[in-house]
């Protein structure tokens, strides 16, 4: 039985509490939230202990779940790791690259597991295609959201686009070669809308657009590779694959096309998506990694790499704005 301490019980923190309650071999040691009104409401609603100091909750826990605002991530993670507590921390890993680097160093010098909350890795639409033979040469992403004051302490890059950066880095097996970016701060002090082009050493190119001031929601990724197109709709949790028909493609819609090199058969299939709760699954997989002493699905290096690209994008936008 693992005891979990939850740090931060705002909108997302409550989702975590609800899911921790349903996970086997887990008991909630308590929670910490500096907002007295929130702490009182959560204590009454969930019937779990409210701690008034960070150190006390870390001492009472085996697992620390950091769902606090990004600028608090480092302090809580540092204390927890130094106390040999396993850490689940929401994305982005830390507020600054220096803090992220230090967290990576602390984890690697310790005997603890750390997982970063890049929840889209557990989205049913992504799970449907992740084990498919992916070799992207062009990726197009649109992640659009309606304005919500929650989460605006960071830019749209670190708030929304970082989800797609993490996915792209996980499927493109190559180093980043070049990044170009432009962005505009519209309603906040940091970029609210941005367009980014990432070029990789292997020739793959990714174009990403993220906005948190859109009229409609969209979370789509389109992957193009030799002989196949893969569409991933993170919002509606669907995935489709359009490819040259092979012997393995049975019971799918197919049609013939004429090309300069002869007739080809195109197969269109909706990839079966599993019925999963993404937040619950990421927490379950984290516990499984602790229990089995295996690599976490999104470890500290993954979190650091996503942050590194995100901060390079922010640097490019800042340089572009200043010129």
What does this protein structure show overall?
- There is one protein chain.
- This protein is α/β, with parallel strands linked by helices.
- The chain folds into two domains: 2-112, Rossmann fold, CATH 3.40.50.720; 121-275 and 309-322, Dihydrodipicolinate Reductase, domain 2 (2-Layer Sandwich), CATH 3.30.360.10.
- It is 34% helix and 30% strand.
- The protein has a nine-stranded mixed β-sheet with strand order 8-9-10-7-11-12-13-15-14. The chain has a six-stranded parallel β-sheet with strand order 3-2-1-4-5-6, sandwiched between helices.
- Tell me about the largest β-sheet: 9 strands, mixed
Question: What's the CATH first level of the largest domain?
Answer: Alpha Beta
Q: What's the helical proportion of residues?
A: 25-40%
- Quaternary structure: single chain
- Compute the number of strand runs: 15
**Side-by-side strand order of the widest sheet:** 8-9-10-7-11-12-13-15-14
The percent range for strand residues is 25-35%
> CATH topology of the largest domain, what is it called?
Dihydrodipicolinate Reductase, domain 2
- Uncertain spans, ≥5 residues at pLDDT below 50? none
Total domain count: 2
Question: Number of DSSP helices?
Answer: 9
N→C terminal distance: 56 Å
CATH architecture level-2 label of the largest domain: 2-Layer Sandwich
H-E order: EHEHEHEHEHEHEHEEEEEEEEHH
**Integer average pLDDT:** 92
CATH superfamily of the largest domain: Dihydrodipicolinate Reductase, domain 2
**How would you sum up the global shape?**
globular
Radius of gyration: 21 Å
Computed structural class? alpha/beta
